[in-house]
Amino acid sequence: xxxxxxxxxxxxxxxxxxxxxxxxxxxxxxxxxxxxxxxxxxxxxxxxxxxxxxxxxxxxxxxxxxxxxxxxxxxxxxxxxxxxxxxxxxxxxxxxxxxxxxxxxxxxxxxxxxxxxxxxxxxxxxxxxxxxxxxxxxxxxxxxxxxxxxxxxxxxxxxxxxxxxxxxxxxxxxxxxxxxxxxxxxxxxxxxxxxxxxxxxxxxxxxxxxxxxxxxxxxxxxxxxxxxxxxxxxxxxxxxxxxxxxxxxxxxxxxxxxxxxxxxxxxxxxxxxxxxxxxxxxxxxxxxxxxxxxxxxxxxxxxxxxxxxxxxxxxxxxxxxxxxxxxxxxxxxxxxxxxxxxxxxxxxxxxxxxxxxxxxxxxxxxxxxxxxxxxxxxxxxxxx
Length: 384
What we know:
This protein has about 375 residues and is mainly β. The protein has helices at about 10-20, 45-50, and strands at about 25, 35, 35-40, 60, 65, 70, 75-80, 95-100, 105-110, 115, 120, 130-135, 140-145, 145-150, 150-155, 160-165, 165-170, 175-180, 185-190, 195, 205-210, 215-220, 220-225, 230, 235-240, 245, 250-255, 260-265, 270, 275-280, 290-295, 295-300, 300-305, 315-320, 320-325, 330, 340, 370. It has 2 helices and 38 strands. InterPro entries: Beta_helix (IPR039448), PbH1 (IPR006626), Pectin_lyas_fold (IPR012334), Pectin_lyase_fold/virulence (IPR011050).
């Protein structure tokens, strides 16, 4: 069985973020020292004016409301009034609010840019992002921000990039939260964010990766009512771990959509979804190397659904707690392409999956190998 640990532990993600988020400053011409540049001030009345001043390697933006579309074309740290404060739990005044109107609030075309501690409002149009990273750069850190009512939270073409401790609310059009869709990405981490308020009548995914990506981590996030937390396509090496999803009946909480390999889904808690985890072939190419382990999949229509023509190798489903899923605990389409091995899972009853008169657990479809199974609802329980 493949390792299920994320490539970056929580401590590792934090260490990367700390290393990337040190605030520099402008150069004091008298002493040669670096000092932070403040906005607003007599010298810098707007965020853009401070970004344009190359002496400002660190920018501190005071609480208040700003209407700007900031173009960031050099390495710089830009701190709002809530820099360093986790957006998921903060309350009260002191927010630095940036309104971008119908255009992105930040467009980033340089390496090693930090955006920390803002509230970003809009833009509301479908597919229009609050943060745009169009240049194939690397080393960005987007943390501790509240992103309200965007068409999309971020359009990503950058590698070695971390999005952490942000709150994304009310993506109300058919769009995504964080999306990488036109340039292959590597070493992107989406960690410890909260997503909610998406319009469930549209297709929405909080995180979408589409084009030739590698070494992606989606960990510690919480998605409430948005439908899909993450949709993966054409990705080699992704870890979807330790997330919590309260889904919707018309969506798959974790969607493995085609031409993916070496995908680990582990430690997630998923409820109220159409499919907690769906292995599919939405783009004409199957997946391989999918491991689904140590998840709690409860109260969905399907716990795990392996669709037609979706895999070239065994889908491994093991040591999961599967219960209360109304259609199947694990379903393997007869034309999926390979068998599904679903041993040592809890099926909601000590008698195993609901395949006979004495079995009261969730159902396993034909083509699923389900013996032995866990006798108790615990990952470490005896498997018989």
